[in-house]
Automatic annotation (TrEMBL):
<keyword id="KW-0812">Transmembrane</keyword>
<keyword id="KW-0472">Membrane</keyword>
<dbReference type="GO" id="GO:0016758">
    <property type="term" value="F:hexosyltransferase activity"/>
</dbReference>
<keyword id="KW-0808">Transferase</keyword>
<feature type="transmembrane region" description="Helical">
    <location>
        <begin position="291"/>
        <end position="309"/>
    </location>
</feature>
<feature type="transmembrane region" description="Helical">
    <location>
        <begin position="321"/>
        <end position="342"/>
    </location>
</feature>
<dbReference type="InterPro" id="IPR001173">
    <property type="entry name" value="Glyco_trans_2-like"/>
</dbReference>
<protein>
    <submittedName>
        <fullName>Glycosyltransferase family 2 protein</fullName>
    </submittedName>
</protein>
<keyword id="KW-1133">Transmembrane helix</keyword>
<feature type="domain" description="Glycosyltransferase 2-like">
    <location>
        <begin position="9"/>
        <end position="129"/>
    </location>
</feature>
<feature type="transmembrane region" description="Helical">
    <location>
        <begin position="264"/>
        <end position="285"/>
    </location>
</feature>
<dbReference type="InterPro" id="IPR029044">
    <property type="entry name" value="Nucleotide-diphossugar_trans"/>
</dbReference>
<dbReference type="Pfam" id="PF00535">
    <property type="entry name" value="Glycos_transf_2"/>
</dbReference>
Length: 352
């Protein structure tokens, strides 16, 4: 490293008592000088012991706890950005409250890569590990030991940038904020916006052994897509449609892939078709009894297959039907915005 600059490391929390102490423990064991780090915790209104645990673990460090009750994820990330600008941090690193940095030199690696590539978003790829109950999760976390990163890495140009273990340089976070109307995939959209403005968006492959996303198996209360209201799920549909179609861009060379575009288009077109089948059902009864039974059969399969599958995983069946209808409505909106998404993605691909 040519020089050591002030950085902010920001962790978003919300009822994170199961994992936050371990996430912070491994964060504090990083080899990067602690006197050059401000730890920023943005809490969305936890009702458990999260804040108490954070205060105990970060005692004696340069840290700030910001209580931002009721914020969604992009709003909380923008609070981090505001704090980084205020503190004159040259780099901002996001670490999720359930992300474990086993590699003790990962922060140094991120800083080194940012010096090598200049103004960039740089994401360390990890792997998800799920546990059936709290005891299994606790036992696993207690057994973990930090280690030196010694594997070969590969750098890909990518929009597929999550924010669980990600660095953003100052020139980017000063200019680009997270879209607060996006309740999911706001990180992908942020990276795409950065690339459109000529900045690097890079995904590091080869760090999966050293970056772990640990949590309990998802259920109806923890699955954000399952919990989300119709209003939240369907708002900002134009931008969400663009995000869905970003799969048309190949990683690294960022070329447009017509086959990938058609794959996404087919998925949302079929769900739109099933929505129209549902709407046509009352009319078909008076038009043709054969058509009525055909549409009824298609609607039964479409509406009940997914909820039955989720019920086997512990999700409520009736809520599953509601979520199926919600996704069909969302698919219709994605279908409507397909020309816009195609135009934006092809324009971006040609400019690279």
């Amino acid at each position: 490293m040519n020089s050591i600059e002030k950085i902010d490391i920001c962790v978003l929390t919300y009822n994170s008592e199961l994992t936050i102490s371990h996430a912070l423990r491994f964060l504090l064991n990083q080899t990067f000088p602690k006197n050059m780090i401000q730890y920023v915790i943005v809490d969305g209104g936890s009702g458990d012991r999260t804040i108490e645990i954070v205060k105990n673990v970060l005692n004696g460090t340069d840290h700030k706890i910001i209580e931002a009750n009721g914020t969604n994820i992009p709003q909380a990330r923008n609070v981090c950005i505001e704090e980084a600008i205020k503190s004159n941090a040259q780099k901002l690193i996001f670490i999720d409250s359930d992300t474990i940095l086993l590699g003790k030199n990962l922060i140094e690696m991120l800083i080194g890569l940012s010096e090598r590539f200049g103004d960039s978003i740089i994401h360390l790829s990890g792997r998800s590990v799920y546990f059936k109950d709290k005891n299994a999760l606790d036992s696993f976390l207690e057994s973990l030991k930090e280690k030196e990163v010694n594997s070969e890495i590969k750098i890909l140009k990518s929009y597929k940038i999550g924010m669980g273990s990600t660095l953003i340089t100052k020139n980017i976070f000063e200019r680009i904020k997270f879209r607060e109307d996006l309740d999911f995939k706001e990180d992908f959209y942020y990276s795409f916006e950065a690339m459109k403005r000529g900045f690097n968006s890079l995904r590091v492959i080869g760090t999966e052994e050293y970056v772990l996303d640990v949590n309990l198996l998802k259920n109806a209360s923890s699955d954000i897509y399952w919990r989300m209201t119709f209003k939240k799920y369907l708002k900002a549909s134009k931008k969400k449609a663009l995000i869905r179609y970003l799969d048309s861009l190949k990683e690294d060379d960022l070329r447009f892939s017509i086959s990938e575009f058609l794959r996404v288009f087919l998925r949302f077109s079929l769900n739109t078709l099933f929505l129209f089948f549902l709407l046509l059902l009352p009319i078909s009864y008076f038009a043709s009894i054969k058509l009525f039974y055909l549409l009824l059969s298609a609607d039964i399969i479409n509406l009940f297959a997914f909820p039955l599958y989720k019920k086997m995983k512990g999700y409520p069946f009736l809520k599953g039907i509601v979520n199926r209808i919600k996704f069909m409505l969302f698919s219709f909106l994605v279908f409507i915005w397909t020309p816009y998404a195609l135009r934006e993605i092809r324009k971006f691909s040609k400019s690279r």
